[in-house]
Write a structure and sequence with these properties.
- The protein has four domains: 216 residues, Histidine kinase-like ATPase, C-terminal domain (Heat Shock Protein 90); 133 residues, Ribosomal Protein S5, domain 2; 92 residues, Rossmann fold, CATH 3.40.50; 137 residues, Heat shock protein 90, C-terminal domain (Four Helix Bundle (Hemerythrin (Met), subunit A), Up-down Bundle).
- A hairpin with a 2-residue loop joins strand 9 and strand 10.
- The longest helix is centred in the middle third of the chain and has 24 residues.
- A ten-stranded mixed β-sheet has the order 1-2-7-6-5-8-4-3-9-10, with helices on one face.
- The chain has 635 residues and is α+β, with helices and mostly antiparallel strands.
- Helices cover 37% and strands 18% of the residues.
- The chain is elongated, with a radius of gyration of 34 Å.
- Bound molecules: adenosine-5'-diphosphate.
- The site of adenosine-5'-diphosphate has 17 residues, from helix 2 and helix 3.
Length: 635
């Protein structure tokens, strides 16, 4: 909303003032993009009019051709851009031009902070396109007349500093919008025909209405997706992709498909090199542009491809849909749904083909868009195809860059291995140093490393690949691994004596007393080789990572109760047995047990208050330094 000072004079909202301030004083390169933005607005207005006209409603000046005109006046240093589109009413002027529509300027401002030089990628995505004109203008006048017959023509004027005026237009005007720009003195080049022509060709060549520059048509208006594939060059595809997405890079992949039967449609799809999702505003910025007989029916239709393929950009055009179809009823249209299904199938098949023929390219796609692709775990219809698209890092690789498919993993299974092992963690290092991983390492069993929390959901939903079950290494009963030989020469302590074994039983009880309710059980482990102890979930429970995710979702901050497993072949535990034998009440046992427990919590990310742990370490260090000193004096 704007604050009105008099009936015709309005102040810009604070956020717009801030934005304008940046644009007016901008030193940005690529100022020329203002023209792309204004032409794109004009084209939208024409698309809307064309959409209205096919619906059969009556509207003003129906005989006017749908077109965009650019005229420059060198002497007056003025540029005029006009269209015969839908126009705006007074109210629409206030609400469309007076506020920032799409996602708010705060994010926009943050974004330009981050990306100081190149505004061109950002501006179009934020619904602030119109304001970019103030990079080159000292004053702008919008004259506009709505297609609605009862509305009057209005005029908006502003110097882009703080306010604007709206008045009834006192001159005859036909339907559409005229934007008159008084250029800043230093922006004279935007009255040069060659300059304007090159900017229009560069950014607006694919606009589907004629653009006239001083009465000469400058754009080519071909619906590229309708042309035969073999007549289109890579450069043309690339140019179209950039036009469509505002991306400054070439696409990573292009898929151009023409289908004639049983339903006719053409689709031109692209996989961008980069995923801009990280900016956070991208969430709703997906979907394919839907055309019917070359008329744009809907920009970014969200039902032609499932959300997890939303990183794919492009257009779809069909002869077989009715022109007057409403956006609301599209989803119920049988033909539309068949087209959507067909496109999804084509895209999945194409991704699989890339994965097979060009693994490096697929790795690049996975790296940028894998986060989105993983969301496909909810697409049950295409589950088999989806599973083949998954990639994981694993213990087979030296670092995080290695990627394996489930198919490749299965190809490397050890004899007798019936399960696919995985484990989640925030980093590779965290997984590798987890006590749960020890036995898999020593038996040289490959483990998939799940480094993205969403992978847990993927595993939970996929459950098995071919006849192999996917299991978290936490949930594997170590007994089942006995059949796999241990590779390393583990330095083993001598077999535990019968007496010590009995004492160990008592020690376990003592440990349970010390920890009380914090653990459900204390028992001997057969999964550990290097660590003295670890925490384990009950066999039928969820994985720790999933448990953590569920806790975050339900804002539950409690520490889950687990089983504490003790490695009887670890030196520390053997020493504890001796200490226990000498004095079962020795305080030192308490300290060590608490320390082992809290260390596990720390590793699993559950230790919120480190004070006790730090104090205890201080005490233990003090004790061990005494010991060290004593030993040193003896030798
Ligand atoms: P965006 O086009 O991204 O929504 P803009 O700031 O460029 O953001 O434009 C704001 C709105 O003003 C548009 O959404 C449209 O409703 C209206 N508008 C702009 N230019 C025109 C035009 N030439 N004809 C009709 N409406 C227009």
């Amino acid at each position: 909303m704007t604050d009105s000072q008099s009936s015709n004079h309005y102040e810009f909202k604070a956020e717009i003032k801030q934005l304008l301030n940046i644009l007016v004083h901008s030193l940005y390169t690529h100022k020329e993009i203002f023209l792309r933005e204004l032409i794109s607005n004009a084209s939208d207005a024409l698309d809307k009019l064309r959409f209205e006209s096919v619906s059969g409603k009556k509207f003003r000046d129906a005989e006017l051709p749908l077109e965009i005109r650019v005229e420059a006046n060198k002497d007056k240093n003025r540029l005029v851009i006009s269209d015969t589109g839908i126009g705006m009413t007074r109210e629409e002027l206030v609400s469309n031009i007076g506020t920032i529509a799409k996602s708010g300027s705060a994010e926009f401002l943050k974004q330009i902070e981050d990306d100081k030089k190149d505004l061109s990628n950002i501006i179009g995505k934020f619904g602030v396109g119109f304001y970019s004109v103030f990079m080159v203008a000292k004053e702008v006048t919008i004259k506009t007349k709505s297609y609605k017959e009862e509305e009057e023509a209005v005029e908006w004027k502003s110097d882009g500093l703080g306010s604007y005026d709206i008045n009834t237009l006192n001159e005859p005007m036909k339907r559409g919008t005229i934007i008159e720009i008084e250029l800043k003195d230093e922006e004279k080049e935007f009255t040069e025909k060659y300059k304007l022509e090159s900017v229009i060709k560069k950014h607006s060549n694919f606009i589907s209405f004629p653009i006239y520059l001083e009465n000469n048509k400058v754009n080519s208006i071909s619906a590229l997706w309708r042309e035969p594939k073999n007549t289109i060059t890579k450069e043309q595809y690339s140019e179209f992709f950039k036009f469509l997405t505002y991306d400054s890079e070439d696409p990573l992949e292009t898929l151009h498909v023409s289908v004639d039967a049983p339903i006719q449609f053409n689709t031109l799809l692209f996989i961008p090199k980069k995923n801009y999702d990280q900016f956070g505003y991208y969430k709703n910025d997906y979907g394919l542009d839907l055309y019917v007989k070359r008329v744009l029916i809907q920009h970014q239709n969200k039902d032609l491809l499932p959300e997890y393929l939303g990183f794919i950009k492009g257009v779809v055009d069909s002869e077989d849909l009715p022109l007057n179809i409403s956006r609301e009823t599209l989803q119920e249209n049988v033909i539309f749904n068949k087209i959507a299904q067909n496109i999804t199938t084509q895209v999945l098949a194409h991704l699989k083909k890339i994965a097979t023929d060009d693994p490096d390219k697929y790795a690049a796609i996975w790296k940028e868009h894998g986060k989105a692709i993983r969301l496909g775990y909810s697409d049950f219809i295409n589950k088999d195809k989806f599973v083949e698209l998954l990639r994981f890092n694993s213990s087979k690789y030296e670092n995080q860059d290695g990627l394996t498919s489930l198919k490749e993993y299965v190809g490397r299974l050890k004899e007798g291995q019936k399960e696919i092992y995985y484990f989640s963690g925030p980093t590779r290092e965290a997984i590798i140093s987890s006590p749960h991983y020890e036995i898999f390492k020593s038996r040289q069993l490959e483990v998939l490393f799940l480094l993205d929390p969403i992978d847990e959901f993927v595993m939970d939903s996929v459950r098995e690949y071919k006849e192999y079950k996917l299991v978290s290494i936490e949930q594997v009963d170590p007994k089942n691994l006995d059949k796999f030989e241990s590779a390393g020469k583990e330095e083993k302590l001598p077999e535990i004596s019968k007496d010590d074994e009995k004492t160990l039983d008592k020690l376990l009880k003592r440990i349970k007393e010390i920890l009380g309710d914090k653990v459900t059980e204390v028992r001997i482990s057969n999964r550990l080789t290097d660590s003295p102890s670890c925490l384990v979930n009950p066999a039928d429970g969820m994985t720790s990572q999933m448990q953590k995710i569920m806790q975050i979702v339900s804002k539950d901050t409690s520490v889950p109760k687990k089983i504490l497993e003790i490695n009887k072949d670890h030196k520390l535990i053997r020493n504890l047995i001796k200490i226990y034998t000498a004095n079962s009440k020795d305080e030192y046992i308490d300290q060590v047990v608490e320390q082992l427990y809290e260390s596990s919590l720390l590793l699993e990310g559950y230790l919120t208050d480190p004070h006790n742990l730090v104090n205890r370490i201080k005490n233990l260090l003090e004790k061990s330094s005494d010991l060290h000193d004593a030993v040193r004096e003896k030798t």
